[in-house]
Amino acid sequence: MSDFKVTELTPDLNFDELPYWDVVIIGAGPAGLAASLTTAHRGLTTLVIEAKESPGGQPQFLYADKKIVDIPGFPDGITGEELSSRTYRQAVNALVQFRMSEEFTDILDTDQAVNGGRLKEVVTTKGRYLCRKVIIACGLLHFPRKLPVLDSLNSKRVYYKNPKIGDYEGQKVVVIGGGDSALDAALMSLDRNAEVTVMVRKPAHVGKTESATRILEAGGQILTNAELATAEFEGEEFRLTLTNGDSILCDIVIVQIGFLSAKETFKRLDVKQNDDGSIAIDPYFETSRRDIFAVGDVHGDIKLIAVAWAEGIQAAIYAFKEITSPYWLNEKRLHDHKIEMIGEKTFYAATHQPDAK
User: Do 324 and 45 touch, CB atoms closer than 8 A?
Assistant: First the structure.
């Protein structure tokens, strides 16, 4: 039986006049949306800050039109766009508040206290937000890597995600990249009747062999050791020139060359990091800084939507517990910490016994 009472926020609450938020969540991907639903359903004022212009995270950004088939409850699969739309609608209905196209830059400690706990201040490119708890759910990989040579053209036909166009009949599409995302983009373009060329900078692609085979069987081509040197307009088309002097004419360019890491941001936050640059957390998803939690790809080895959902929900409940009954969690943490220390001492003693004579 649950040991907390679920309450509801009232629609007439003036969120703009709040002196502070109960929870600020950074990132509107699967983990962040799940966390926001959980805190709002428990009556906590919840603000989600998202750097992109729309919610959904990587499922929306990378797989908007692709069926995701490994999520329980959707036997026929569900597109990233539909999944993101449904979850976002749930959050809005729960009175979660959102700030889109706003990137967080820092989380500061303050001297302001509420019920014995000091408030945090989340700093973004557009504002500052006081809160009791912060949940970082922005993902380890932050923004798509750009190609300046293409950006200089300032064209709306250069995409860093799969464009939403119903038909590419007769269109020539170049996909730049050699990973699974690039090969998926090529297959989706071929399915829409495009002529597709995949440009891979390295000697071989690193995506699924099955995907590459399907591309070739569908009439697409994969160029390896193909690095873009210059790009220019030629009439209504792009002329892409490679470092070896070859050139390609195309109508659309889709760039899938990975994402910039948020590791530097995490370092600036002064939270403990793992060897791979991800955020270190305790069993309650709290970071080395009190009242700051981290969920999803920012720390996890298993990067699945269902896992992100579960972690977002768990961290949200732990944050709720700390806000509503801090003694419960604090005492349990102390107990768990003692058990952990006993286990470590036992392991050390067992592995450092002198060899038998």
Answer: no
Which residues have CB under 8 Å from 243's CB, separation 6+? 227, 228, 229
Can you say whether the dihedral through the CA atoms of 82, 83, 88, 94 is positive or negative?
positive
54 contacts 100 by C-beta, under 8 angstroms: yes
Which are the contacts of 300, defined by CB distance < 8 A and separation ≥ 6? Answer: 278, 307, 308, 311
β-bridge partners, 104: 124
Q: What pTM does this model have?
A: 0.70
Tokens of 184: 């998926």
> Which residue type sits at 222?
I
**Residue with the two structure tokens 């000091």:** 118
Asked if 134 and 122 touch (Cβ cutoff 8 Å), the reply is yes
Task: Pick the closest to residue 168 from 193, 186, 188 (CA basis).
Answer: 193
Alpha helices in 180-227 (DSSP H): 180-191, 209-217
**Structure token pair of residue 91:** 């959050």
User: pLDDT tens digits, residue range 150-208?
Assistant: 999 999 999 987 776 677 888 999 999 999 889 988 998 999 899 999 999 999 999 99
Residue 309's DSSP bridge partners are none
